[in-house]
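hey all, quick one before standup. I had two proteins in the batch that finished overnight and I want to keep them in one place so we stop losing track of which output belongs to which input. First protein below, input sequence then structure tokens straight from the run.
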Amino acid sequence: MHLVTSAARILDVYDLQEGDRIVTFLTPDYGKKRGVARGSRRKHSRFAGQLQLLAKVRITWFEREGSDLARISAAELLDSPAAVMNDLEGLLLAGYLAEHLTEFAQENEASERLCRLLEATLGALAGGLDRNLVTRYFEVWVLRLAGIFPPPVECPQCGVELQGEAALPEGGDALLCLRCSEGEKQLLIAGPVLGFLQASARASVREIARRPPAHAALSVIEDLCRRLRRRFLGKELKSYRVMRRSLAIAGGEIHS
């Protein structure tokens, strides 16, 4: 058994048994981890107020060889995501961001780039940037870091440079030129969408926010990411379904 301390973001918390919770958290150096926080459900627990979704904490845990669960001994709150989770849409979006990382981050593998992406995303949201734009940027980069986002540069079939328009064939995982995708059922990737995908590879979300794409283009980016994500995972994220249904019931605009 050895003791480890690291900064982390909380990705998931659920009840284990009377008084205890299982916590999933993401660290830069150790990747995704899962541990038991003993007594965290009790009224006077030392974990009280520390294990919030997406909260940044300094967390200490014990690892035992051969065990799937660590034992969390301490968690100190460093940063609260309260500014992001200040309404229904913000609460739902927090769950959506967290589930992405729960699905795509690897256990026991360094996740520095995913951690930096999450920090930049939360900072942009707290700074008042458009949630729709920030979420689309986050989705694209999670898929890119997972190695499953198709490069929006050239057609993999004929090698022609993608300019102006491209297409994602139904059930496909590569962006093709219109000639190679002709005759197939497809999602059309028009110029503004392609421009966003190319720009996001080299620019921060704050830089892109200076000249953001139109809402229609962001909707296509959402659909593109949804198709690629479902094809890779073989399922839809539960938080995505809940978010769309909840916001539709509430009569709000769906941004994610």
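OK second protein, same deal, sequence then tokens:
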Amino acid sequence: MPIDALTVKQTILDLTLMMGDLVVKGTATSASSTTLVDTNNLLFSNDDDLNGTWVGIYEGTGVGDERAVSDFTASSDTITVVDTWSSTLNTTSDYFVTRRWRPQQYIDAIAGAVRRAAHKQLLHLDDVTGFQHELITFGDILSTDGNGNGQMENFTTNVPTGWTADGNTTSASDSDTDDVRRGTFSYKMTSDGSNLAQITQAIKFFERYASSDIRMYAWVRADTTARSLIRLDDGPSTAVTDTEADGVNVWEELNALLTVSDAPTGIDIDCEISAGGAVNTNFDDVRLIWEGGTIYEYDLPGRLAYLSKVEAAVGTTEEGASNVYGWVEIPRWMWKVQGGSNAKLVFDPAAYNPPRNVRCRLTGQAYPATITAATPATAYAETVEANAEYVKAYAKWYLLNSLPYDILADETIRRQVRDAWGFMLEMEETMSVSVNPGSEIVRAN
């Protein structure tokens, strides 16, 4: 059964239509703290036509708000809601109105569908493409102990997850081919034209690196030369930096070596643009290599379900070279998976010493993406992976089954519930989990 990439907001709109529950959708033309006006779509004939419905904001200002409609005024195309909006809506605010089910119930139905489907379907990852491709660097502190995202592949509100941006920095994820050094995305930093701009990550369990050498690497591409840099600091020692100097709009690998104090108060890594005129810089492939020790345990990505093969890179580390990489498989008996919520790839110290600053490629299977957002505001923008028809079948059963008992007692509704459940189970018969031979389970999702 094919797996589709489904945006949550579009899936909700599709479901409201399928369930006959979509009253109207549109974009606000004006608003107040408790009203929404849409002169293009709220064209109902009578006052109070929308009383008792629910309105959800799925994009723009106020996204995630769900409010009960207390009044509708036909002459002014105005909805009045019971509680004030989190922010006064404007012409960026896209909304939909439902009568039977609340917007949150639609989100819950989709979340339930993709969670159930995750147990039935896996995404197969080959040696060339896939979520797990080239996500670990041996010897990299940013690949263990809950540190991470030096590859700038994951973002939270435009800032790389795990990093903190200062108030002078405009942040964005960048997927343009020329702006990515490794993986699918890089981090684009724009300074404000006057002040220092930076993102920072505080290293966890920094005490273990006391009295050792650690070296920070990063690839940098800037539109202004000699203004972009990396910084490495442990508190007592003098911070070390390296500044881009190779020219405009070319990738340069920076590195800064620090001998950590005997008693560090913390280890912080920064990617920066120095104070002055506005600069645009892409940072990618950030690594923090422990020069004074060997790292045997590496964090595994959260979506990984099974791991079947681990390989180390050989050959040049220069992107674009004719002999970019060869891969040597690390024998299965040299590594194991420590499963669970904080799953790790663990190497046997008696059998294999992972090299430093060398790429590691993982081959396995991942669970389809589910809704991970903690709030509706971010859930609407998420993309999930599941069969669209399966999601709709499960959601229909979920929503119908949530109706009050007196409505569920109606034979027509009961038949619809049974039909939706039967269709869903029939579709599940075509879903199968085929695990790659020799795989080790990472996480039972």
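Flagging for whoever picks this up: The longest helix spans residues 411-428. Residues 4-119+373-428 form one domain.
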